[in-house]
Amino acid sequence: MAVSTIRPRPQPDEVARVTSTAAELLEVLWGRASTAPASASQLRVLLILEHHEGINLRTLADSLASTPPSTSRLCDRLQATGFVDRVVSPSDRREVRLRLSDRGRAFLDDLRRRRQRELRSVLDVMPAAKRAALLEGLEAFCDAAAGRIHDEADSETRSA
Predict the structure, then answer these.
(1) Residue 149: CA atoms inside 13 Å, Cβ hemisphere, count?
(2) Which end of the chain, C or N, has fewer beta carbons within 10 A?
(3) pLDDT digits (tens, 9 = 90+) for 87-146
């Protein structure tokens, strides 16, 4: 009769520590897939615009926890590289909406391909069962994180 070791359920603190380490290692791997010509702050703007097409500057600044003047300068630089388009709002000519340009989308697509290539080099050396467990855990994490972000956004909207 084989004796199996029973692994205690991992505590949230332990999982948070390992997840933080994994995120740091991801940063190192992703660093190999340079984000040039966009800085880390500019990349955050591009990712927000990708998911919130046509938001205004104030909403973007709030999302970045920044000020509108700083966010405007960030967008100026992104517009100069051709990654962002500014469009006058059809409902209020004083309001400017921000959109990810075709060039910005192409940049994000290319960056994701390069990042995935770096990740594949690590995942290729993992045993298949561990990859499957990682996938299952990451899907659950993404669902929980997205739910939390969505709930926080809803509560901010209700309190505004």
Answers:
(1) 7
(2) N
(3) 988 888 888 899 999 999 999 999 999 999 999 999 999 999 999 999 999 999 999 998
In the numeric block, the tokens 């509560």 are attached to: 155
Quote the tokens at residue 43. 């990349």
Residues 6+ apart with CB under 8 A from 141: 19
* H-run or E-run covering 56: strand 55-56
- Nearest Cα to 134, choosing from 123, 144, 121, 124? 123
Residue 91 is given by DSSP the state S
- Section 140-153 average pLDDT: 85
CA pair distance 4, 156, nearest whole angstrom: 48
CA 123 to CA 132: how far, in whole Å?
A: 11
CB distance 38 to 46 below 8 Å? yes
The long-range contacts involving 118-121, CB below 8 angstroms and separated by at least 24 positions, are 118/29, 118/30, 118/32, 118/33, 119/26, 119/29
Q: Are 92 and 109 in contact (CB under 8 A)?
A: no
Phi, psi of 59 (to 5 degrees): -65, -40
Q: Are 81 and 100 in contact (CB under 8 A)?
A: no
